[in-house]
Write a structure and sequence with these properties.
Layout (H helix, E strand, L loop, with lengths): L10 E7 L4 H10 L13 E5 L20 E5 L5 H12 L6 E5 L9 H10 L5 E9 L10 H7 L10 E5 H6 L13 H11 L3 E10 L9 H4 L3 H12 L3 H5 L6 H26 L3 H30 L10 H12 L2 H15 L12 E4 L24 H10 L4 E6 L1 H4 L5 H15 L4 E5 L15 H10 L6 E5 L2 H10 L2 E4 L7 H6 L7 H14 L14
Parallel strand pairs: 1-2, 1-4, 2-3, 5-7, 8-9, 8-11, 9-10, 11-12
Antiparallel strand pairs: 4-6, 5-6
Protein backbone atom coordinates (compact mmCIF):
# COMPACT_ATOMS: atom_id res chain seq x y z
CA UNK A 1 0.00 0.00 0.00
CA UNK A 2 1.30 3.42 -0.92
CA UNK A 3 1.77 5.50 2.25
CA UNK A 4 -0.31 8.62 2.53
CA UNK A 5 1.62 11.83 1.89
CA UNK A 6 2.77 13.64 5.00
CA UNK A 7 0.59 16.50 6.13
CA UNK A 8 2.04 19.84 4.99
CA UNK A 9 3.74 21.87 7.68
CA UNK A 10 1.51 24.49 9.22
CA UNK A 11 2.83 28.02 9.15
CA UNK A 12 1.82 31.51 10.20
CA UNK A 13 2.87 34.71 8.48
CA UNK A 14 4.33 37.57 10.54
CA UNK A 15 4.68 41.03 9.02
CA UNK A 16 6.23 43.96 10.94
CA UNK A 17 4.91 47.23 9.57
CA UNK A 18 5.18 50.96 10.06
CA UNK A 19 1.92 51.50 8.19
CA UNK A 20 3.18 51.69 4.62
CA UNK A 21 0.51 51.65 1.94
CA UNK A 22 2.31 48.65 0.44
CA UNK A 23 1.14 46.49 3.35
CA UNK A 24 -2.34 46.12 1.87
CA UNK A 25 -0.84 45.14 -1.49
CA UNK A 26 1.20 42.43 0.22
CA UNK A 27 -1.97 41.09 1.81
CA UNK A 28 -3.74 41.26 -1.54
CA UNK A 29 -1.00 39.20 -3.23
CA UNK A 30 -1.13 36.72 -0.37
CA UNK A 31 -4.90 36.44 -0.66
CA UNK A 32 -4.57 35.76 -4.41
CA UNK A 33 -2.41 32.66 -3.87
CA UNK A 34 -3.73 29.33 -5.12
CA UNK A 35 -3.91 27.00 -2.12
CA UNK A 36 -5.08 23.44 -1.61
CA UNK A 37 -4.68 20.58 0.81
CA UNK A 38 -1.03 20.02 -0.16
CA UNK A 39 -0.16 23.72 -0.37
CA UNK A 40 -2.35 25.36 2.26
CA UNK A 41 -2.38 29.02 3.12
CA UNK A 42 -1.19 30.31 6.48
CA UNK A 43 -2.92 29.35 9.70
CA UNK A 44 -3.09 33.07 10.39
CA UNK A 45 -1.37 36.35 9.55
CA UNK A 46 -0.07 38.51 12.38
CA UNK A 47 0.70 42.11 11.46
CA UNK A 48 2.78 43.92 14.07
CA UNK A 49 1.93 47.62 13.99
CA UNK A 50 5.31 49.13 14.83
CA UNK A 51 4.30 52.78 14.65
CA UNK A 52 5.23 54.89 17.64
CA UNK A 53 2.80 56.43 20.10
CA UNK A 54 -0.98 56.31 20.13
CA UNK A 55 -2.18 55.74 16.59
CA UNK A 56 -5.39 54.79 14.87
CA UNK A 57 -5.64 51.04 14.20
CA UNK A 58 -4.45 49.86 10.82
CA UNK A 59 -7.32 49.31 8.41
CA UNK A 60 -6.61 46.08 6.61
CA UNK A 61 -8.89 43.90 4.50
CA UNK A 62 -8.81 40.31 3.31
CA UNK A 63 -11.39 38.58 1.15
CA UNK A 64 -14.00 36.41 2.84
CA UNK A 65 -12.94 33.59 0.55
CA UNK A 66 -9.60 32.95 2.28
CA UNK A 67 -9.40 30.56 5.22
CA UNK A 68 -7.06 32.67 7.30
CA UNK A 69 -7.53 35.93 9.16
CA UNK A 70 -5.35 38.94 9.83
CA UNK A 71 -4.63 39.82 13.43
CA UNK A 72 -2.88 43.04 14.45
CA UNK A 73 -0.77 43.52 17.57
CA UNK A 74 1.22 46.57 18.62
CA UNK A 75 4.98 46.91 18.48
CA UNK A 76 5.25 50.54 19.68
CA UNK A 77 8.08 51.58 17.37
CA UNK A 78 10.79 49.48 18.98
CA UNK A 79 12.16 48.27 15.65
CA UNK A 80 11.70 45.25 13.40
CA UNK A 81 13.57 42.80 15.65
CA UNK A 82 11.26 43.49 18.60
CA UNK A 83 8.24 43.57 16.27
CA UNK A 84 9.04 40.18 14.78
CA UNK A 85 9.46 38.73 18.26
CA UNK A 86 6.08 40.10 19.26
CA UNK A 87 4.56 38.60 16.14
CA UNK A 88 5.97 35.08 16.24
CA UNK A 89 5.32 34.68 19.94
CA UNK A 90 1.70 35.64 19.41
CA UNK A 91 1.40 33.45 16.30
CA UNK A 92 2.74 30.25 17.83
CA UNK A 93 -0.54 29.76 19.70
CA UNK A 94 -2.10 29.04 16.32
CA UNK A 95 -0.20 25.75 16.40
CA UNK A 96 2.15 26.82 13.61
CA UNK A 97 5.35 24.82 13.25
CA UNK A 98 6.91 27.53 11.07
CA UNK A 99 6.82 31.32 10.99
CA UNK A 100 7.11 32.91 7.54
CA UNK A 101 8.48 36.42 8.03
CA UNK A 102 7.68 38.90 5.25
CA UNK A 103 8.45 42.59 4.91
CA UNK A 104 5.50 44.91 4.42
CA UNK A 105 6.83 46.23 1.10
CA UNK A 106 7.21 42.96 -0.81
CA UNK A 107 4.89 41.34 -3.35
CA UNK A 108 4.14 37.64 -3.62
CA UNK A 109 4.02 36.31 -7.18
CA UNK A 110 1.59 33.60 -8.21
CA UNK A 111 2.69 30.23 -6.90
CA UNK A 112 4.50 31.57 -3.81
CA UNK A 113 2.35 29.58 -1.38
CA UNK A 114 2.88 26.37 -3.34
CA UNK A 115 6.65 26.91 -3.49
CA UNK A 116 6.70 27.68 0.26
CA UNK A 117 4.90 24.42 0.98
CA UNK A 118 7.49 22.57 -1.12
CA UNK A 119 10.36 24.37 0.62
CA UNK A 120 9.01 23.50 4.06
CA UNK A 121 8.39 19.88 3.05
CA UNK A 122 12.01 19.62 1.92
CA UNK A 123 13.30 20.72 5.33
CA UNK A 124 14.43 17.85 7.51
CA UNK A 125 14.24 18.07 11.31
CA UNK A 126 17.74 19.51 11.42
CA UNK A 127 16.76 22.56 9.31
CA UNK A 128 15.86 25.63 11.32
CA UNK A 129 15.14 28.08 8.50
CA UNK A 130 14.60 28.39 4.76
CA UNK A 131 15.06 31.58 2.75
CA UNK A 132 13.12 32.70 -0.29
CA UNK A 133 14.77 34.24 -3.33
CA UNK A 134 14.38 38.01 -3.69
CA UNK A 135 13.84 39.73 -7.03
CA UNK A 136 14.34 43.51 -7.20
CA UNK A 137 12.98 44.96 -10.46
CA UNK A 138 15.14 47.75 -11.85
CA UNK A 139 14.31 50.17 -14.65
CA UNK A 140 15.06 49.06 -18.20
CA UNK A 141 15.29 52.60 -19.57
CA UNK A 142 18.36 53.73 -17.61
CA UNK A 143 21.17 52.48 -15.42
CA UNK A 144 20.21 52.08 -11.74
CA UNK A 145 20.76 54.82 -9.21
CA UNK A 146 22.77 54.36 -6.05
CA UNK A 147 19.61 53.73 -4.02
CA UNK A 148 18.28 51.27 -6.59
CA UNK A 149 21.56 49.35 -6.49
CA UNK A 150 21.45 49.40 -2.70
CA UNK A 151 18.01 47.78 -2.75
CA UNK A 152 19.06 45.34 -5.46
CA UNK A 153 21.81 44.03 -3.16
CA UNK A 154 19.03 42.16 -1.34
CA UNK A 155 19.04 39.71 -4.25
CA UNK A 156 22.37 38.36 -3.03
CA UNK A 157 21.80 38.78 0.70
CA UNK A 158 21.86 35.66 2.83
CA UNK A 159 19.16 35.11 5.45
CA UNK A 160 17.29 38.35 4.73
CA UNK A 161 13.94 38.39 6.53
CA UNK A 162 12.17 39.96 3.57
CA UNK A 163 11.12 36.31 3.04
CA UNK A 164 12.52 33.99 5.67
CA UNK A 165 10.69 31.07 7.25
CA UNK A 166 11.97 29.94 10.67
CA UNK A 167 10.98 26.86 12.57
CA UNK A 168 9.28 27.88 15.83
CA UNK A 169 11.51 25.48 17.77
CA UNK A 170 14.62 27.22 16.42
CA UNK A 171 13.28 30.64 17.39
CA UNK A 172 12.45 29.40 20.87
CA UNK A 173 15.88 27.82 21.25
CA UNK A 174 17.66 31.17 20.77
CA UNK A 175 14.95 33.48 22.20
CA UNK A 176 14.20 34.98 18.80
CA UNK A 177 15.63 38.18 17.38
CA UNK A 178 18.04 40.31 19.39
CA UNK A 179 15.97 43.40 20.14
CA UNK A 180 19.08 45.52 20.70
CA UNK A 181 19.28 45.87 16.91
CA UNK A 182 17.03 48.92 16.46
CA UNK A 183 16.65 48.95 12.69
CA UNK A 184 16.23 46.61 9.74
CA UNK A 185 19.94 45.92 9.50
CA UNK A 186 22.04 43.00 10.76
CA UNK A 187 19.29 41.67 13.05
CA UNK A 188 18.66 38.93 10.46
CA UNK A 189 22.35 38.01 10.18
CA UNK A 190 22.68 37.90 13.96
CA UNK A 191 19.71 35.55 14.25
CA UNK A 192 21.08 33.29 11.53
CA UNK A 193 24.43 33.01 13.32
CA UNK A 194 22.83 32.15 16.65
CA UNK A 195 20.49 29.59 15.10
CA UNK A 196 23.42 27.91 13.37
CA UNK A 197 25.45 27.86 16.56
CA UNK A 198 22.50 26.23 18.31
CA UNK A 199 22.91 23.31 15.91
CA UNK A 200 20.37 24.08 13.17
CA UNK A 201 20.92 24.28 9.44
CA UNK A 202 19.79 27.19 7.25
CA UNK A 203 18.92 26.52 3.61
CA UNK A 204 17.80 28.39 0.51
CA UNK A 205 14.37 27.55 -0.88
CA UNK A 206 12.91 27.76 -4.38
CA UNK A 207 10.14 30.28 -3.76
CA UNK A 208 10.58 33.86 -4.93
CA UNK A 209 9.24 37.24 -3.90
CA UNK A 210 9.40 40.66 -5.52
CA UNK A 211 10.88 43.56 -3.58
CA UNK A 212 10.25 46.85 -5.42
CA UNK A 213 12.53 49.82 -4.85
CA UNK A 214 10.86 52.16 -2.38
CA UNK A 215 10.85 55.90 -3.08
CA UNK A 216 13.55 57.67 -1.10
CA UNK A 217 14.75 61.23 -0.61
CA UNK A 218 18.17 62.56 -1.53
CA UNK A 219 19.74 61.89 1.89
CA UNK A 220 18.74 58.25 2.31
CA UNK A 221 22.31 57.05 1.70
CA UNK A 222 23.49 59.27 4.55
CA UNK A 223 20.86 57.97 6.99
CA UNK A 224 21.65 54.33 6.33
CA UNK A 225 25.14 54.91 7.72
CA UNK A 226 23.54 54.41 11.13
CA UNK A 227 23.93 50.72 10.35
CA UNK A 228 27.61 51.04 11.22
CA UNK A 229 26.56 51.05 14.87
CA UNK A 230 24.91 47.69 14.26
CA UNK A 231 28.15 46.44 12.70
CA UNK A 232 29.83 47.41 15.96
CA UNK A 233 27.25 45.35 17.86
CA UNK A 234 27.85 42.39 15.54
CA UNK A 235 31.58 42.57 16.25
CA UNK A 236 30.92 42.72 19.97
CA UNK A 237 28.61 39.70 19.88
CA UNK A 238 30.35 37.53 17.27
CA UNK A 239 33.97 38.67 17.19
CA UNK A 240 36.08 40.28 14.46
CA UNK A 241 35.34 37.45 12.01
CA UNK A 242 31.59 37.99 12.07
CA UNK A 243 31.39 39.02 8.40
CA UNK A 244 32.80 35.73 7.18
CA UNK A 245 30.61 33.76 9.57
CA UNK A 246 27.49 35.66 8.51
CA UNK A 247 28.44 35.57 4.80
CA UNK A 248 28.23 39.36 4.75
CA UNK A 249 30.38 41.12 2.12
CA UNK A 250 33.03 43.53 3.34
CA UNK A 251 32.11 47.18 3.03
CA UNK A 252 34.15 50.29 2.36
CA UNK A 253 34.61 51.29 5.98
CA UNK A 254 38.46 51.24 5.91
CA UNK A 255 38.30 53.83 3.12
CA UNK A 256 35.97 55.95 5.24
CA UNK A 257 38.48 55.81 8.09
CA UNK A 258 41.24 56.94 5.74
CA UNK A 259 39.06 59.80 4.47
CA UNK A 260 38.26 60.97 7.98
CA UNK A 261 41.95 60.68 8.89
CA UNK A 262 42.89 62.90 5.96
CA UNK A 263 40.24 65.42 6.96
CA UNK A 264 41.52 65.38 10.54
CA UNK A 265 45.10 65.90 9.33
CA UNK A 266 43.94 68.90 7.33
CA UNK A 267 42.24 70.46 10.32
CA UNK A 268 45.16 69.70 12.64
CA UNK A 269 47.63 71.21 10.19
CA UNK A 270 45.61 74.39 9.80
CA UNK A 271 45.25 74.77 13.56
CA UNK A 272 48.98 74.24 14.05
CA UNK A 273 49.76 76.80 11.36
CA UNK A 274 47.58 79.41 13.06
CA UNK A 275 49.23 78.77 16.41
CA UNK A 276 52.72 78.95 14.89
CA UNK A 277 51.89 82.16 13.05
CA UNK A 278 50.52 83.73 16.22
CA UNK A 279 53.81 82.92 17.96
CA UNK A 280 55.84 84.37 15.11
CA UNK A 281 57.22 81.04 13.98
CA UNK A 282 57.05 81.37 10.24
CA UNK A 283 58.91 78.17 9.40
CA UNK A 284 56.67 76.17 11.72
CA UNK A 285 53.58 77.70 10.13
CA UNK A 286 54.84 76.77 6.65
CA UNK A 287 55.56 73.21 7.74
CA UNK A 288 52.11 72.89 9.28
CA UNK A 289 50.50 74.32 6.15
CA UNK A 290 52.38 71.77 4.07
CA UNK A 291 50.93 69.01 6.24
CA UNK A 292 47.48 70.54 5.96
CA UNK A 293 47.83 70.69 2.20
CA UNK A 294 48.86 67.05 2.05
CA UNK A 295 45.85 66.12 4.18
CA UNK A 296 43.53 68.18 1.99
CA UNK A 297 44.92 66.58 -1.15
CA UNK A 298 44.45 63.10 0.30
CA UNK A 299 40.90 63.97 1.38
CA UNK A 300 40.07 65.34 -2.07
CA UNK A 301 41.47 62.24 -3.77
CA UNK A 302 39.65 59.84 -1.47
CA UNK A 303 36.39 61.75 -1.75
CA UNK A 304 36.69 61.95 -5.54
CA UNK A 305 37.37 58.23 -5.68
CA UNK A 306 34.25 57.59 -3.61
CA UNK A 307 32.14 59.82 -5.85
CA UNK A 308 33.37 58.05 -8.99
CA UNK A 309 32.71 54.62 -7.48
CA UNK A 310 29.12 55.61 -6.77
CA UNK A 311 28.47 57.44 -10.04
CA UNK A 312 30.20 54.92 -12.32
CA UNK A 313 27.49 52.23 -12.35
CA UNK A 314 24.67 54.78 -12.39
CA UNK A 315 22.89 56.91 -15.00
CA UNK A 316 24.96 58.30 -17.84
CA UNK A 317 25.10 61.93 -19.08
CA UNK A 318 21.98 62.57 -21.10
CA UNK A 319 19.81 60.29 -18.96
CA UNK A 320 17.01 62.22 -17.22
CA UNK A 321 18.20 60.98 -13.84
CA UNK A 322 21.90 61.84 -14.37
CA UNK A 323 22.01 65.39 -13.01
CA UNK A 324 19.84 64.69 -9.92
CA UNK A 325 21.93 61.60 -9.20
CA UNK A 326 25.17 63.53 -9.65
CA UNK A 327 23.93 66.16 -7.21
CA UNK A 328 22.99 63.50 -4.66
CA UNK A 329 26.33 61.73 -4.98
CA UNK A 330 28.40 64.92 -4.64
CA UNK A 331 26.50 66.10 -1.57
CA UNK A 332 26.39 62.82 0.30
CA UNK A 333 29.82 61.45 -0.61
CA UNK A 334 31.49 64.34 1.20
CA UNK A 335 29.81 63.56 4.51
CA UNK A 336 29.17 59.80 4.44
CA UNK A 337 32.71 58.89 5.65
CA UNK A 338 32.36 61.15 8.70
CA UNK A 339 28.88 59.83 9.47
CA UNK A 340 30.01 56.22 9.08
CA UNK A 341 32.95 56.62 11.45
CA UNK A 342 30.87 58.52 14.00
CA UNK A 343 28.19 55.81 14.04
CA UNK A 344 30.79 53.04 14.34
CA UNK A 345 32.53 54.74 17.27
CA UNK A 346 29.24 55.44 19.02
CA UNK A 347 28.20 51.83 18.50
CA UNK A 348 31.43 50.49 19.96
CA UNK A 349 31.09 52.76 22.98
CA UNK A 350 27.39 51.98 23.48
CA UNK A 351 27.95 48.24 23.23
CA UNK A 352 31.28 48.01 25.04
CA UNK A 353 29.67 45.93 27.81
CA UNK A 354 26.92 44.25 25.79
CA UNK A 355 26.53 40.53 26.43
CA UNK A 356 24.71 37.70 24.69
CA UNK A 357 21.00 37.70 23.89
CA UNK A 358 18.64 37.33 25.66
CA UNK A 359 19.46 39.83 28.37
CA UNK A 360 19.09 38.39 31.86
CA UNK A 361 16.01 39.04 33.97
CA UNK A 362 16.98 41.37 36.81
CA UNK A 363 13.60 42.43 38.18
CA UNK A 364 10.02 41.14 38.29
CA UNK A 365 7.06 43.51 38.36
CA UNK A 366 3.53 42.49 39.28
CA UNK A 367 0.17 44.00 38.54
CA UNK A 368 -1.83 44.25 41.77
CA UNK A 369 -5.57 43.72 41.26
CA UNK A 370 -6.39 40.39 39.64
CA UNK A 371 -2.77 39.26 39.78
CA UNK A 372 -1.55 39.41 43.39
CA UNK A 373 -4.91 39.99 45.07
CA UNK A 374 -8.50 39.34 44.06
CA UNK A 375 -9.91 42.28 42.16
CA UNK A 376 -12.41 44.24 44.23
CA UNK A 377 -13.37 47.25 42.09
CA UNK A 378 -12.21 50.54 43.63
CA UNK A 379 -11.32 48.87 46.90
CA UNK A 380 -10.26 51.23 49.68
CA UNK A 381 -10.73 48.77 52.54
CA UNK A 382 -7.65 46.78 53.65
CA UNK A 383 -9.95 44.20 55.23
CA UNK A 384 -11.12 43.16 51.74
CA UNK A 385 -7.62 42.32 50.54
CA UNK A 386 -7.39 38.62 49.70
CA UNK A 387 -4.39 37.03 48.01
CA UNK A 388 -4.92 35.02 44.86
CA UNK A 389 -3.82 31.38 45.13
CA UNK A 390 -0.07 31.05 44.78
CA UNK A 391 0.71 34.73 45.30
CA UNK A 392 2.84 34.13 48.38
CA UNK A 393 4.76 31.30 46.76
CA UNK A 394 5.31 33.30 43.59
CA UNK A 395 6.66 36.41 45.29
CA UNK A 396 8.79 34.36 47.67
CA UNK A 397 10.29 32.48 44.72
CA UNK A 398 11.33 35.73 43.04
CA UNK A 399 12.93 36.99 46.22
CA UNK A 400 14.67 33.67 46.78
CA UNK A 401 16.19 34.03 43.31
CA UNK A 402 17.73 37.31 44.43
CA UNK A 403 15.60 39.48 42.14
CA UNK A 404 13.92 42.70 43.25
CA UNK A 405 10.12 42.81 43.09
CA UNK A 406 7.81 45.71 42.35
CA UNK A 407 4.16 46.52 41.79
CA UNK A 408 2.69 48.64 38.97
CA UNK A 409 -1.00 49.35 39.35
CA UNK A 410 -3.66 51.52 37.73
CA UNK A 411 -5.73 53.20 40.46
CA UNK A 412 -8.12 55.39 38.51
CA UNK A 413 -10.49 55.44 41.49
CA UNK A 414 -8.39 58.32 42.82
CA UNK A 415 -8.83 60.37 39.68
CA UNK A 416 -12.52 59.48 39.48
CA UNK A 417 -13.07 60.69 43.05
CA UNK A 418 -14.07 57.23 44.28
CA UNK A 419 -10.99 56.70 46.46
CA UNK A 420 -8.46 58.80 48.31
CA UNK A 421 -4.73 58.30 48.00
CA UNK A 422 -4.72 57.39 51.68
CA UNK A 423 -7.16 54.56 51.12
CA UNK A 424 -5.07 53.17 48.24
CA UNK A 425 -1.92 53.42 50.39
CA UNK A 426 -3.70 51.52 53.17
CA UNK A 427 -4.62 48.70 50.78
CA UNK A 428 -1.05 48.61 49.50
CA UNK A 429 0.24 48.43 53.05
CA UNK A 430 -2.00 45.42 53.66
CA UNK A 431 -0.65 43.74 50.52
CA UNK A 432 2.90 44.33 51.73
CA UNK A 433 1.95 43.00 55.17
CA UNK A 434 0.75 39.75 53.60
CA UNK A 435 3.43 39.32 50.94
CA UNK A 436 6.39 41.16 52.41
CA UNK A 437 7.93 44.47 51.36
CA UNK A 438 8.24 45.35 47.69
CA UNK A 439 11.26 47.16 46.31
CA UNK A 440 9.14 49.68 44.41
CA UNK A 441 5.48 50.65 44.23
CA UNK A 442 4.28 52.48 41.15
CA UNK A 443 0.66 53.53 40.83
CA UNK A 444 -1.25 55.70 38.40
CA UNK A 445 -3.90 57.84 40.15
CA UNK A 446 -5.33 59.31 36.95
CA UNK A 447 -8.70 58.78 35.34
CA UNK A 448 -8.58 57.51 31.75
CA UNK A 449 -9.72 60.85 30.31
CA UNK A 450 -6.69 62.61 31.84
CA UNK A 451 -4.56 61.08 29.07
CA UNK A 452 -1.51 60.59 31.29
CA UNK A 453 1.74 58.85 30.36
CA UNK A 454 1.69 56.43 33.29
CA UNK A 455 -1.65 54.63 33.02
CA UNK A 456 -1.27 51.17 31.54
CA UNK A 457 -1.16 50.34 28.64
CA UNK A 458 1.23 53.28 28.44
CA UNK A 459 4.75 52.55 29.64
CA UNK A 460 5.27 55.24 32.28
CA UNK A 461 5.01 53.07 35.39
CA UNK A 462 7.17 50.29 33.96
CA UNK A 463 9.86 52.79 33.03
CA UNK A 464 9.64 54.41 36.47
CA UNK A 465 9.89 51.03 38.21
CA UNK A 466 12.96 50.07 36.17
CA UNK A 467 14.60 53.39 37.02
CA UNK A 468 13.79 52.98 40.71
CA UNK A 469 15.33 49.51 40.72
CA UNK A 470 18.39 50.59 38.75
CA UNK A 471 17.83 48.18 35.86
CA UNK A 472 17.12 48.57 32.16
CA UNK A 473 13.47 48.08 31.14
CA UNK A 474 14.56 45.16 28.94
CA UNK A 475 15.71 43.41 32.10
CA UNK A 476 12.24 43.58 33.66
CA UNK A 477 9.32 41.17 33.36
CA UNK A 478 5.78 42.35 34.12
CA UNK A 479 3.26 39.71 35.20
CA UNK A 480 -0.38 40.74 34.86
CA UNK A 481 -3.87 39.55 34.07
CA UNK A 482 -5.09 41.78 31.23
CA UNK A 483 -3.88 43.10 27.91
CA UNK A 484 -3.02 46.53 29.34
CA UNK A 485 -0.28 44.90 31.40
CA UNK A 486 1.17 43.20 28.33
CA UNK A 487 0.97 46.37 26.24
CA UNK A 488 2.61 48.52 28.93
CA UNK A 489 5.52 46.10 29.10
CA UNK A 490 5.83 45.98 25.31
CA UNK A 491 5.76 49.76 25.01
CA UNK A 492 8.48 50.09 27.65
CA UNK A 493 10.71 47.42 26.11
CA UNK A 494 10.13 44.97 28.97
CA UNK A 495 8.94 41.38 28.83
CA UNK A 496 5.58 40.15 30.05
CA UNK A 497 3.65 37.08 31.12
CA UNK A 498 -0.14 37.09 31.04
CA UNK A 499 -2.03 35.07 33.66
CA UNK A 500 -5.62 35.11 32.39
CA UNK A 501 -8.61 35.43 34.70
CA UNK A 502 -12.33 35.44 33.85
CA UNK A 503 -12.07 39.15 32.94
CA UNK A 504 -9.25 38.59 30.43
CA UNK A 505 -10.54 38.89 26.87
CA UNK A 506 -9.75 36.10 24.40
CA UNK A 507 -8.08 38.57 22.02
CA UNK A 508 -5.77 39.65 24.83
CA UNK A 509 -4.70 36.06 25.38
CA UNK A 510 -4.18 35.59 21.64
CA UNK A 511 -1.98 38.68 21.39
CA UNK A 512 0.16 38.02 24.46
CA UNK A 513 3.75 36.88 23.81
CA UNK A 514 3.71 34.60 26.87
CA UNK A 515 0.79 33.11 28.80
CA UNK A 516 0.78 31.08 32.01
CA UNK A 517 -2.10 29.24 33.66
CA UNK A 518 -1.23 30.29 37.20
CA UNK A 519 0.85 32.93 38.91
CA UNK A 520 3.31 30.33 40.15
CA UNK A 521 3.68 28.97 36.61
CA UNK A 522 4.36 32.51 35.39
CA UNK A 523 7.10 33.03 37.94
CA UNK A 524 8.59 29.62 37.18
CA UNK A 525 8.80 30.53 33.49
CA UNK A 526 10.43 33.87 34.34
CA UNK A 527 13.01 32.31 36.63
CA UNK A 528 13.65 29.61 34.04
CA UNK A 529 14.29 32.29 31.42
CA UNK A 530 16.61 34.07 33.84
CA UNK A 531 18.63 30.87 34.19
CA UNK A 532 18.57 30.08 30.44
CA UNK A 533 19.94 33.53 29.63
CA UNK A 534 23.20 32.63 31.34
CA UNK A 535 23.62 29.14 29.89
CA UNK A 536 24.50 27.88 26.43
CA UNK A 537 21.61 26.73 24.25
CA UNK A 538 21.94 23.03 23.35
CA UNK A 539 21.72 21.71 19.80
CA UNK A 540 18.30 20.43 18.75
CA UNK A 541 17.40 16.77 18.68
CA UNK A 542 16.17 15.11 15.51
CA UNK A 543 12.58 15.69 16.58
CA UNK A 544 13.19 19.11 18.04
CA UNK A 545 10.11 21.14 18.77
CA UNK A 546 11.53 23.52 21.37
Amino acid sequence: MTPAPAAPAGYAVVVPSVGRATLQWLLDTLSAQDVDAQAPGPLEVVVVDDRRGDVEPLRLTVPDTVAWTVRTVRGYGRGPAAARNRGWRAARRSGAEWIAFLDDDVELPAGWAQRLAEDLAACGPEVGATQGRIDVPLPDSSRPTDWERNTASLQNADWATADMAYRVAALEAVSGFDERFPRAYREDADLALRVRRAGWQLVHGRRRITHPVRPADDLVSLRVQAGNADDALMRRLHGPGWRAAAEAPAGGFPWHVATVGALAATGTGLAAALVAAARGRGSGARTALTGAGAGAAAWAWLTGRFVLLRIGPGPRPGDPEFLPELSRMLRTSAVIPVAAVQHKLRGRWRHRGTGPWPVPVRAVLFDRDGTLIHDVPYNGDPAQVELVPGAQEAVDAVRAAGLPVGVVSNQSGIGRGLLTRGQVDAVNARVAELLGPFDTWQLCPHAPEEDCACRKPRPGMVLAAAAALGVDPSECVLIGDIGADVEAAQAAGARSVLVPTPVTRPEEVAAAPAVATTLTDAVASVLGAATAATTEVPAPSAAARG
